[in-house]
Amino acid sequence: MQKLYYSAVLYTVLGLAAGLYYREVTKAHDFTGTTQLAVLHTHLLTLGTLVFLITLALQKTLHLTRGRFFPAFFWTYHAGLLLTTALMAVHGTLTVLGKDTGAAISGIAGLGHILLTLALVFFFLCLHHRLRPDFAGTTQTDTSELTGADRTHG
Question: Best exposed site among 57, 79, 82, 98 by fewest CB in 10 Å?
Fold first, then answer.
């Protein structure tokens, strides 16, 4: 649980720093165009801070870290998010500086997105593993309630 908390804190700090960096670098270079730096802080705060705060809440209720896929989710998500946002920062900075970004940056950023997708698969597998006992109990309860309602109105 502590790792989830510190992950949320990490991405909050990175997100706030990215917002400051965007403001200062564009101001220093009198840049008024569009750059990926403009959305870097929101990516870090949303995909980092909010995702880990939600995961922390789910940990408190569902004990997600007990799932066998949780370590795979945790480390793959970090790798994917850090790679994606680092390349956003590089691409955005090069845009502000008026330099060509090239295909390599887009390709590596694509790898970050693939890792994020894989991490989300691991997350849903972990979530399914922790909710599976509830699925079995809910299905039987819902069926009996529906059957009882049909008998009452029928």
Answer: 98
Structure tokens at 50: 């909010």
pTM across the whole model: 0.83
Provide the 3-class DSSP secondary structure of residue 35: coil
Query: Where does residue 14 rank: exposed (0-12), middle (13-18), buried (19+ CB within 10 A)?
Result: buried
| Helix, strand, coil abundance in the chain, percent, nearest 5 | 90, 0, 10
Examine residue 154 and state whether it is found in any structural domain, yes or no. no
- Token pair 């992950």 is found at 7
Classify residue 114: in a domain, yes or no.
yes
Residues 28-53 pLDDT 10s: 999 998 999 999 999 999 999 999 99
Residue 147 lies in a domain: no
Query: Tokens 């309630």 appear where?
Result: 145
CA 58 to CA 1: how far, in whole Å? 10
Positive or negative torsion for Cα 62, 66, 71, 72: negative
Q: Does residue 146 fall inside a structural domain?
A: no
Residue 53: give the domain boundaries.
2-135
